Amino acid sequence: MTQLVRRRLPTAGPLLASVVAVVAAGCTSQSGGISPSSASREPASAGPAMQHPTLEGIPLPAGFRLVDDRSFGVSTGPMRVGRFEFRGNVERTTVASFFKQYMPSGGWTLRKEDFDRGVYELRFESSSEECTIRLRAEGRATIIGVQVSPIPGSTMAGDVAPPLGVRNGASGRR
65 and 121 in one domain? Predict the structure, then answer.
């Protein structure tokens, strides 16, 4: 039995080497394909802007998915408040550049940019809302935190009903 195994090993070696050579040649073909080695050297692109239904007007990079159990949002008429988390595999610096490029086209102005202990924070304002974007690493993934709320004192924030007992400037006393 050991002789049979010894005879097959020399023929299996060239066959295995041929398969590896064919697979390797396919990965580096010159027909417009990207080889794995060149792809790892080039910076990743955040791709085109996507849209989440609750975050209308706030672009999101392609390839990120919503983390349901770490997200919430409420909208009433024109007002919305929410905190959403998305997970993807695009480098944080690329994602930060994405937001700086795409947010202005949605009517947002960058008001603050910060980097503290590995977390990028970008704060944008529109005419009635503020949106804070936080980017952090979690293992090999990038986590995008999006927080949106009305700007205090804006017309939109004024559309919210006052607390019970405080209507038209009167207190709850009778």
Answer: yes
Burial degree of 136 (CB within 10 A; 0-12, 13-18, 19+): middle
Q: Is residue 18 part of a domain?
A: yes
The predicted-structure confidence for 9-63, as pLDDT tens digits, reads as follows 344 443 333 333 333 333 333 333 323 333 333 345 566 788 888 788 999 999 9
Domain residue limits at 18: 2-41
Instruction: Indicate whether 112 belongs to any domain.
Output: yes
Q: Is the pTM of this model over 0.70?
A: no
Same structural domain for residues 32 and 59? no
The 3-class SS string of 62-113 reads CCCEECHHHCEEEEECCEEEEEEEEEECCCHHHHHHHHHHHHHHHCCEEEEE
